[in-house]
Each structure stands twice: as structure tokens, then as C-alpha cells.
Amino acid sequence: MAEDNKTALSGAALVAAFVALVAFGVFVWFLITQTDADETRWTRLAWVFASVEAIAFGAAGALFGSSIQRQQTVRAEERAEENAEGAVNGRALAASLIADQPGTPAGDSQLETLGPGQARDGAAVVATRHAALAKKLFPGLG
Length: 142
Prior knowledge:
Blueprint: H1 12-33, H2 39-99, H3 117-137
């Protein structure tokens, strides 16, 4: 849970964003009270308002964006935890297939086959194909 707060705004950034939003609200209220101002004054106020508005929208984006980013990070961590066991099992299977390929000590075991010698050759072809696939999928293992 402590890691979730790493993406949230905190300290000075949070205070600055909050102050910018409050200042924007105050400025909007001020503009509403100035609707009867002459055109030159109103144009100048509107120009300043555009600058304040950009800062306020940036602050709102930072506040809302950090909470959205935090939610996405939590979901990604949950998916990674769900798939971690499968990844470990897949790597273990690949290592086992690579170790059992013909030409390695484990792959050349002298165990008797239950069928004719051709069955041993077919098994060797399959083992070689599985080992090649495991090497392709997990190049660091073989």
C-alpha cells in the first residue's frame, strides 16, 4: 500500500495544484463580477484569465492524472503477480526440455523403451523439437 503513494502528488506539488485551482475559482468569480467593465478592461482580464486557466487546467490534470496513474499501476502490479507463477513454470518447463534434448547427459539416458527402437528415434525427434522451441522462446536458458 505504501508503494501506491509514489505516483500521487504530495507535499509542495499538491499544495501548488490546490492553490492554483482555488485561485482559478476566485478569478472566475472576479470575472463574473466584472461583466459591466468597459471593453478594454474586459479584454485585458480575458487575456489574463486565459493564462490562469492554462495553469489551473495543468494543476487539475496533475491531480486527476496522478490518481488515474496510481490506479493503472495497481492494476498492472496485480496482473504481474497473477502471471508470475505461470512465467516461472514456463521457464522451468523450457529448462527441462532443453536439458532432456538428445545429445545431453539427461537426454541420452540408457533406459529401455517399451516398444521397438523406432519409438526411441521418434521420441528423440520430439525431444529435439521441444528443446529447439524452448531455446527459441527462452534464449537465456539454453
